[in-house]
Amino acid sequence: MTHTLSEFDSKQRLRQYGIPTVAEVLAADADEAAAQASTIGFPVVLKLCGAAIAHKTERDLVRLHLADEKAVREAAHDLLGKRRPEDGDARLLIQAMVRGRREVIVGMMRDPQFGPCVMLGLGGILTEAMRDVVFRMAPLRIVDALDMMDELQGAHLLGPFRGEAGVDREALAGVLVAVGKMAIECDEIVSLDINPLIIPSTPEGAIVSGAAPIAVDALLEVVDP
To answer: What pTM value is reported for the model?
Structure first.
């Protein structure tokens, strides 16, 4: 049997392998959420988070662009009111608002024939390439990760695009290599879904030079202890 870790716990595991993740913290109630949001810095994202909550968007459990403590409190009360008994220990997850017009999807799964495999795909606003994914068997070298990017049908969208600089390919390759390393070293991990991994941009939309891709949402499925 397997179970899914909460989004917060999933990203804790990612950080152990050096994968950049959004700044975030859990809170039990609206007042604590507002205080934590002030510490992180506005604007923030607020989510209802728990191991039994996998599809937040479908349940309207995500609030974006919260600009002050009042907005956070109102959103917190709203989200807490949407809790269901089957959600278990669901708490509020406060995250920094990461700006980025280009997003990728990174994942890991265990194939019955090939073993652990790492996946890379294009997503977010790049809807024309949403079904564009490539796989590699773990472990990966940097050169393997770079080859994965080149094999995407929409590979050109990782380069200079619409007047913006290209994605830091080495930084993205580092994430893919780290996911492969995690897959090899952690037999209990059945699958991983990082969606999205955002390429940070300025408020004007330009890619931040040298900025590492940031995991904004992630879910790990693991074997029951």
So the answer is: 0.93
Please give the Cα distance from 4 to 37 (Å, whole number).
Answer: 26
CB-neighbour burial class of residue 135 (10 A; exposed 0-12, middle 13-18, buried 19+): middle
DSSP state of 93: E
Burial of residue 74 (number of CB atoms within 10 Å: 0-12, 13-18, 19+): middle
Statement to judge: residues 64 and 160 lie in one domain = no
CA-CA distance, 75 to 66, in Å (whole number)?
Answer: 8
Query: 38 by DSSP, 3-state: which?
Result: helix
Tokens of 205: 């939309």
Same structural domain, 91 and 176:
no
Which CATH number goes with the domain that contains 146? Answer: 3.30.470.20
Question: How distant is the alpha carbon of residue 214 from its chain centre?
Answer: 7
pLDDT in tens, 63-77: 999 999 999 999 999
CB 192 within 8 A of CB 118: no
Q: How many residues does the chain have?
A: 225
**Per-residue pLDDT tens for 4-41?**
999 999 999 999 999 999 999 999 999 999 999 999 99
